[in-house]
Design a protein that fits this description.
It is built from 13 helices and 17 strands. It has helices spanning 3-13, 58-68, 81-93, 105-120, 139-144, 148-151, 169-175, 199-211, 263-266, 282-297, 300-321, 344-352, 375-391; strands at residues 25-29, 32-35, 40-43, 98-102, 126-130, 161-164, 180-185, 188-189, 195-196, 215-219, 243-246, 257-261, 325-331, 334-339, 355-356, 358-360, 364-367. The protein starts with a helix and ends with a helix. By secondary structure, it is an alpha/beta fold. The protein is globular. It folds into 2 domains: 3-56 and 299-391, Aspartate Aminotransferase, domain 1; 71-297, Type I PLP-dependent aspartate aminotransferase-like (Major domain) (Aspartate Aminotransferase, domain 2), CATH 3.40.640. Bound molecules: pyridoxal-5'-phosphate (PLP). Pyridoxal-5'-phosphate binds next to helix 4.
C-alpha cells in the first residue's frame, strides 16, 4: 500500500490524538528505519526508547519467534516459567524485590500508586511528585505528572497528588503533610527536557522517606534497562528506591511494563487487589529476557558508556560552535541539547535529512540512540545535527 493510502486510512479511522509526521515506516533494523518510499532514516530516538537495544534485535526476534510456537498467553491464574525467570532477572539486577507485570509505563505507575496507597491505608494517601515530571496518560498518571498542560481539559484530576520543584529540598519538605505516603520521581526527567537529579538531592529524599516511613518511587520507564550506562538510573547514586517502575526498553519492542517493589512491601498487594489480564505474558517475557541477554552478552552497558561519552563530547563541541546551544546535559545515551530558540525547526531539518530525534519542552533536542549505536552512526548524526543547528 502506498504511503498516501496508509495516511488516509489513519485520517478516516484512527483517533487523531497524536501529532504524526508524514513518514510511513515499513521496516526497521538496529539504528535504522525504512519508509514506504524506500528512504532510509537514522533513528536517534527509537520508539521513544522502546527499541532501546535497536530495532528488531536478533535475540529478541528469535525469542519471540520461538515462543510464539509454544504458548502466546497464559492467564495469571496459572504459572509459566518465563514470567518467573524474568522477575528473577529484574530482581537480581536491581534490589532483590518482587515484580508485578503489566503492559506499559502508565500501568506500572498505577500499580505503584496502588501499592503506596495500600501501604498508607487508611491514614496516608498523598503522593508527592516533581514539577516537569512525566508519568503517563491514565487519569492518575496525568494527575501525578507535574505539568498542567497534560491535565488541562480533563479536570477534575484524581485526588492525592501534588508536585514540587525538582531538586529543591526545601520545597519538598514544605509540601509534606501527615497524609504523605510517597515521593515519586524520574532520576532523569525525560519529557521534562533531560533534567538530571542531583545526587545530594536524591540522598536527601531517600533519608527523608526512611525517616518518615514513606515510600520512595523511581519511575525508570525511560531511564531503565541500561539507557544511562547502568542497568537502572538510580544505580549511579548509591541508593535504592522502595518501588521502581519499568517499561519501554524492557520488552525490546514488545509491550511490557513492570512494577518492582522491595520484598517487605510487595506483599501488601494480596490476591485480588490488583491485576492485568495481559501482564507478564510468555511472549512479552521471552522478549524481555532476550533484552537482558543482549545487554549482558553483547556488553551493551559498556557501549552506552563509551558511545555516551563520545556523543556528549561531540555535542559539547557543537555548543562551542553555536551560541544558540544553551546547555548539553544528560547521562549515558540519554542526552539533551537545550537551545535558546525553538527546537522544532532543527527537528524538522533533521527529519528532512533522514535523522530522527525528538524535541522536549519546546527547546530541548532529545537524543537517545539505540544502545547498540556505533561511532560511525554518531558521526553521521552529528553532521546532520550540526547543519540543523546552523540553520536555526
Ligand atoms: C518516565 C515515564 N514514565 C511513564 C511513561 C508512560 O509510559 P507508557 O506510555 O508506556 O504508558 C513514560 C512515557 O514516555 C515516561 O517517559
Amino acid at each position: 500500500m502506498d504511503a498516501q493510502k496508509v495516511m488516509q486510512l489513519y485520517d478516516d479511522y484512527v483517533v487523531g490524538n497524536y501529532l504524526r509526521r508524514n513518514l510511513v515506516i515499513t521496516k526497521a533494523k538496529g539504528s535504522w528505519v525504512w519508509a514506504a518510499d524506500g528512504k532510509k532514516y537514522l533513528d536517534f530516538f527509537p520508539g521513544w526508547a522502546v527499541s532501546g537495544i535497536g530495532h528488531c534485535h536478533n535475540r529478541v526476534v528469535r525469542a519471540v519467534q520461538d515462543q510464539a510456537k509454544k504458548v502466546l498467553h497464559v492467564s495469571n491464574n496459572y504459572y509459566n516459567e518465563l514470567q518467573g525467570r524474568l522477575a528473577e532477572r529484574i530482581a537480581l539486577n536491581s534490589f532483590n524485590g518482587k515484580v508485578f507485570f503489566c503492559n506499559s509505563g502508565a500501568e506500572a505507575n498505577e500499580a505503584a500508586f496502588k501499592l503506596a496507597r495500600a501501604f498508607g491505608n487508611p491514614k496516608r494517601n498523598e503522593i508527592i511528585t516533581m514539577k516537569d515530571s512525566f508519568h503517563g496518560r491514565t487519569l492518575a498518571c496525568t494527575a501525578a505528572t507535574g505539568q498542567e498542560k497534560y491535565q488541562k481539559g480533563f479536570e477534575p484530576m484524581p485526588e492525592g497528588f501534588k508536585s514540587v520543584p525538582f531538586n529543591d529540598k526545601e520545597a519538598l519538605q514544605k509540601a509534606l503533610t501527615d497524609k504523605t505516603i510517597a515521593v515519586m520521581m524520574e532520576v532523569i526527567q525525560g519529557e521534562g527536557g533531560i533534567r538530571v537529579a542531583d545526587s545530594d538531592y536524591l540522598r536527601f529524599v531517600r533519608q527523608l522517606c526512611f525517616d518518615r516511613d514513606m515510600l520512595l518511587i523511581f519511575d525508570e520507564v525511560q531511564t531503565g534497562m541500561g539507557r544511562t550506562g547502568t542497568m537502572f538510573g538510580y544505580q549511579h547514586y548509591g541508593i535504592e528506591p522502595d518501588i521502581m517502575t519499568l517499561a519501554k526498553t524492557l520488552g525490546g519492542g514488545m509491550p511490557i511494563g513492570a512494577m518492582v517493589a522491595q520484598k517487605k512491601i510487595a506483599g501488601m498487594l494480596a490476591p485480588g487487589m490488583h491485576a492485568s489480564t495481559f501482564g507478564g505474558s510468555p511472549i512479552a517475557c521471552a522478549a524481555a529476557l532476550a533484552v537482558f541477554e543482549a545487554i549482558e552478552k553483547d556488553r551493551l552497558l559498556a557501549n552506552v558508556v563509551e558511545m555516551g561519552h563520545y556523543l556528549q563530547d561531540e555535542l559539547v563541541r557543537l555548543k562551542g560552535r553555536y551560541p544558540i546551544i544553551k546547555q548539553v546535559r544528560g547521562m549515558g545515551l540519554m542526552l539533551g541539547v537545550e537551545l535558546i530558540v525553538n527546537g522544532p525547526k532543527a527537528y524538522d531539518y533533521c527529519l528532512a535529512k533522514g535523522l530522527l530525534i525528538n524535541c522536549a519542552q519546546g527547546t530541548t533536542l532529545r537524543i537517545m540512540p539505540a544502545m547498540t549505536v556505533t561511532r560511525n552512526e554518531i558521526d553521521l548524526a552529528m553532521t546532520v545535527l550540526s547543519e540543523a543547528i546552523g540553520k536555526c
